[in-house]
Specification:
The protein is mostly helical. It has helices at residues 5-27, 29-32, 36-61, 69-80, 97-125, 138-149. The longest helix is centred in the last third of the chain and has 29 residues, at 97-125. The radius of gyration is 16 Å and the shape is globular.
């Protein structure tokens, strides 16, 4: 049975809706307010998850376009003057090629959320606040993803 891309996208959205809702509720900078401390904690939490995933994805899929999520997160945290502590987290990394592609899809999709969060953070904390990770892919990825999934 062949699944059309638009059907696959609908299935994926329905299947991840609850998880996205829980995550959005926890991050909701609009409702909870953005402070430098909350923003730094958010970036630090993302780095704790993204760093091991990005490293494992590189083993399965090779390096991407040279833009490292881990480096961007570390740069933004440094710019905020946030302490750089060694990280360890129980992050489930991809164990198969299929899982690697799924994980890559989710990480790329998160860049769309970053595009929505960046202006909220900048309005609250000023235009000079580092948002290079939130703006990792920008408009280019949005157009690319939309073109592939519709």
């Amino acid at each position: 049975m062949q699944v059309e891309p638009s059907d696959l996208l609908s299935l994926l959205r329905r299947g991840t809706r609850d998880a996205h809702s829980r995550l959005d509720a926890r991050i909701d900078f609009g409702r909870h307010g953005v402070t430098l401390q909350r923003y730094a904690a958010f970036l630090d939490g993302m780095l704790t998850v993204v760093a091991p995933l990005e490293a494992r994805l590189a083993r399965w899929l090779g390096r991407s376009d040279g833009t490292s999520r881990t480096q961007r997160l570390e740069e933004d945290l440094r710019s905020l003057g946030a302490p750089q502590a060694p990280r360890s987290a129980d992050v489930r990394v991809p164990a198969t090629l299929a899982e690697a592609y799924g994980c890559s899809y989710v990480l790329e999709g998160s860049t769309l959320g970053g595009m929505a969060l960046a202006p909220v953070v900048e309005r609250s904390l000023g235009d000079d606040v580092p948002t290079t990770w939130l703006r990792l892919r920008g408009v280019t990825i949005a157009a690319s993803v939309a073109g592939r999934l519709t």
